[in-house]
Amino acid sequence: MTKFLADTAFVVLTLLVVVALVWTVTYPSLSDPRNIKYVLWKNGLYALNLDTATGTMIGDASRERLVVGKTRAQLQKKFGYLTNLTGASSYLKACYQHSAWENRDVLFIRNSSWMVIFNGDQATDLLLCKGC
Hints:
The chain is an alpha+beta fold. It has five helices and four strands. It has helices spanning 2-26, 36-42, 50-56, 72-79, 90-97, and strands at 82-83, 105-109, 114-119, 122-128. It has a four-stranded antiparallel β-sheet.
């Protein structure tokens, strides 16, 4: 019985290593949201560079799940820091001022172009500011 468990554990670990290696070779780019490091970071299992993560979010179809419904404290824990309007670039300020979300409570994820709209302490929307 012990030999059977040891053999089973060996086979399972071998399969996990093979899957991880194939995944890493298939999606090597850190800017690809299917990259294993990004997927692990999204699930709280890897400490990815947070600026890299915000860049990779552009191609992530499920990026809203990372933000919408979260509190400011949860977002700060996930992304390190949030930037308010006074700390944002003049470009991001202009995007905000000429948007449908003007006069709403917003923060930007780190120094990125990701604008998070809040209702109270809870994030209600995520927008990428570009082409304003």
